[in-house]
Amino acid sequence: MEPLTLDRRTFLGRTLAGFAWMTAVGHALAVAPPVRRPKSIILLWMQGGPSQLETFDPHPGKEIAGGTKAIDTPLKGVQLAAGMEAVAEEMGSIALVRSMTSREGDHERGTYTMKTGWRPDPTVVHPSIGAILCHELPSGGTDIPRHVSILPNQWSARGGYLGDQYDAFRTGDPTQPVPDTKAHVGPKRDEERMKALSVVERAFAKGRSRRVEATLHADTIARARKMMTSEQLKAFDVSTEPLAVRRQYGDTAFGRACLAARRLTEVGVRCVEITLDGWDTHANNHALTKPLVATLSPAFAGLVRDLKKRGTLENTMVIVAGEFGRTPRINPVGGRDHWPTGFSVALAGGGIRGGVVVGETDPEGGPKPKEPVKVGDLYATVLAAVGIESDRVHQTKIGRTVMYAEGSPVDALLTGRE
Amino acid sequence: MWKRDVLFLTLTLGGVLALGANLMPPAEPRPATTHDLAAYQGPALREVVARVDASFRQRWKEKGLAPTAPATDLTVARRLGLGLMGTIPSLEEVRQFEYLPPDERLPWWIDHVLKDQRFSEYLAERLARAYVGTEGGPFIFYRRRRFVTWLGDQITRNTPYDALVRQLITAHGLWTNEPATNFITVTVRPDSKNQPAPVRLAGRVTRAFLGLRLDCAECHNERNEEKEQHRARLWKQSEFRGLAAFFGQTHLGFTGIHDGKGEYLIDDRKSKGPRTIEPTVPFAEELLPGDGTRRERLAVWVTHPKNRYFARAAVNRVWALLFGRPLVTPIDNLETFAYVPPALDLLADDFAANGHDLRRLIRIIASTEAYRLDSGGDPEPTEAHETEWAAFPMSRLRPEQVAGGVIQASSVDTIDLQSHVFTRLTKIFNLRDFLDRYGDTGEDEFEGRGGTIPQRLLLLNGQLTRERIKDDLLTATGRIAASRLDDARTIEAAYLTVLTRRPTAEEVAHFEAVLKEPGPRGKKVEDLFWALINSTEFSWNH
To answer: Which runs of consecutive H residues, i.e. helices, occur in B247-307?
Structure first.
């Protein structure tokens, strides 16, 4: 056999050819990033401050319970208040935080804090979680507003410094068609009208084009018209769902809204907020809370079950929260008052680990819960699950530096971070 | 027998003539009301206007800003109508306006508006939002409608503003007989034992009348909080409570609101028991009188001519109504590190020195150069221009103004007290339904939020739009389409009715071409009205 000659030409020729295989291996190793479907959030908003003792954090047999009984769940050692049977069945998919603490005991301020992750600040309006999702997650193919609030009150979710175009689209009970979405005239006249409108707009914009553009009037009209002709509008209508499915959620406006929310996330809506009001039980707590629990429980459980069945639970996060909880002590008129130090929030899906309970409140009604979770921490957790950096610093339009959330994620709540 | 026939013929003829007379546009649009030029020519008034103008010109020079050119008279008239009555001038009013010589037009229009019942009603509603909020309140003890009506009466009578506020603070009696007491009873809640709430009242008094947010101090005691840079001064919880104590002897009994005995007690965290708080004022103690009930003393202190916050807060509010944006933002917090134009003090001093006359204040502001500037220009005004009032600021119209605009824009006649009761009833129902869907900005009306898709949908496809622009006998569309006006004048009439301006050459060219095409004229005029109502221009104050 000839000795291996090592002259330059051969050397280069052989080694380069040899290295060439690296390209192929390199290609194989450079795995394309997994195509992640952007996630959605459904926020079940309990306006008024739901009593944790009558919902997610009962202390049966203790004085603070005021007689409220508890029921078992498939999770060992975890009980829910009586009335929450439907939710108890789904506890394997649900994570509970029982030690939420905020410093806001006022309804408006507490609502703001829980919907944005920050305490009210006179110098800036923070965006709600839905606005952040719409802003950060890719869009495309959704002709209807991607941020919706069903059965809203006056504090529906806002876009804040991200812009008013991220304000939630407000709509009512899904039994009613979305109002004002049909033009009065045929397509030919409609075209004439739009031409006429553009002539009028052009005349007004002369000498003030920047300011007129900033009004977003024409932009909003364009979006409204897109919505009018969209197939996705049907997502608001729950009457086409099978009766069995509708019954699961309960025959209440809230239940219907939860079903509509599921349909909306399926056509690309990023965040749906549904309000259930009436939890502010300063008097007659037990009597007033009972029907609310009866509304919430089947709707929440029905939603989780439905999402699981359709295989979309891992991309859809359901959050149940109110602005604060209620006092362990029952007041002289049988009610409970505001209690922001140690209240409950429930989460399911969208990257949240099910079957987990974080934190504990004092069975004797003391103010300091074990393992407290601040609102900022909750937001950091939610954003981490959804894939958005919460602590990236960016600037608002007027140059103020902001972050999406202050605090750190609670690892116990996130899948893949055990 | 034949007499009956003659009578019948006469009546029919008379009826037809009357109908015809009403349907035809008025031959000679003489102004229906008189005006008092002297009110605008008085030297004292002109001097204040001149000083305000000079202060702005000085500031523009410092900032290197050239103000925009003056806006047309019609534009200014539209601003005044929207700001003071919540509606646009009707075509009828525009004709009367243009009948007068140019330098009399705006003085006539301002007086015309100030005399109109619509002004009293609209201003009453805007003030009521600041005084009692927008919520329904406890029906047993509270009648919002009566309160607003009463406020409207005071405005019609031009009650001096300080007297009005004193009446509110010291009101007593039953909320049904003495509507001013609703200012107090709106705060009655079950959790305050069905008694007026001193904390809430003190908060309202300081925000609405003094332009101070003292009530933040109730929970955020200065020493516990980080410095909030927006505030020039931080209030202490004790100062706020001292003010609340002035309402500590106000009770709700069988005869309504009255002042009696008692103390203002709060729960002391440290001693775990009740503690008496004495009534004290947070500044200008020398203005507090020694005699009278607590509320009487407070009322005198709040409205004292030397209490600078009172006049300034009033000026800020009236400025905001006219311009769509307050001089100092937010409207109920005058303490700020930001630059405050000297106009605030100039106007406040004049206001206090002239009997706190709201109408005089309105006349002065409406006569300033800043109020008459155009919102656009060549070169286009920048954001700095708007901030410094070197261009008239564009602001989104409130839902009531948009609704009022749509309703008025669909009628050539003015819809006011003289209108047929049927017209007025229709207006009320349309208004309520529209507002329900259009949404309400609530109390914080000058926040400048963006428009929403539902609002656009309502104007594009809503029932109010459809009914109001329909081509029929009674709408502006119908009357203008059926009139004998030529194409150019038809288009002009539509523009004047809806946008209170004349069309540009380009707009005339487009719509003349449309009108010349074959097809029913009424439908084309309908489409024109639709376009005008859905334009940016219609929904914004400029």
So the answer is: 294-303
